What does this fold into?
Amino acid sequence: LICVVDAPYKGYFDATITFSDGAKYRMYCNPSDTTFGKRLEDRLSFRVFDTSNNLIGVFVGRTKKTGKLFGGYVYYELNFCNRQYIGYEIGRASQGIALCLYYNDKLLSICDKNTHVVNFQDDYNIYCENFDDIYMSTLFTIYYDMAKFPDMREIKLYSQVETYMVTANKELKSKYDPEFIPRIKAMEGKTD
It folds into this structure.
């Protein structure tokens, strides 16, 4: 267990994230709140605060145009503790979704999202080369889940959903390193 997310429903997202070592952050997004600006981007950004309620991070989705008429892809700009990270979502069909987190063009982690969801409980596995990147990787995963699959109030017993996504954009697909997860598993002495 990496962390616990306490997110009581308030009509917007306001969560306390407590890591197993005691580190604690607050993540907040309220599209009706204009405290941080009136532009749509300002209102849809997720903000991260430390225990003293100081703003230490802003996460927002962006689109990169690739030159073709409808070409492009979504990526995530994650500013956290004065560092800018970039996150990518790569659909791998029946193998799930890979969330790839980069800093300075270096792949830090891959979060693997399972295609099978039971009772609105998504299953994620995070693989990091350096354990120091686990906080940022986890915060990115929580942000991604809330921005992409905001089913906080959904209640349905015994529900099961299969979600497949395929990434066709070659530039985006290149962000996924198929050797990364096996390399991390080998470092930990694990095999499939």
The helical segments are 40-44, 134-148, 170-173, 180-187. The two ends are 20 Å apart (CA to CA). The CA atoms of residues 30 and 154 lie 19 Å apart. The chain has a mean pLDDT of 86.
